[in-house]
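Example 3.2
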Amino acid sequence: MSKIMEEVRDEAKKMCAAQIALNLLKNGDMTFDKIAECCNLTVEEVTELAKDYNLMPV
């Protein structure tokens, strides 16, 4: 597979994981750690999503 195709595939996977994480954040039942673990994201990435969409816990 070409380098460009791999990069496109990896970016698509990351976007899908971010969308799932966003849905989990909106649900509000899981910790950032658990969302990160389930979506193969870092806690920092999950935190950034929460900030971007005003979903930070109070």
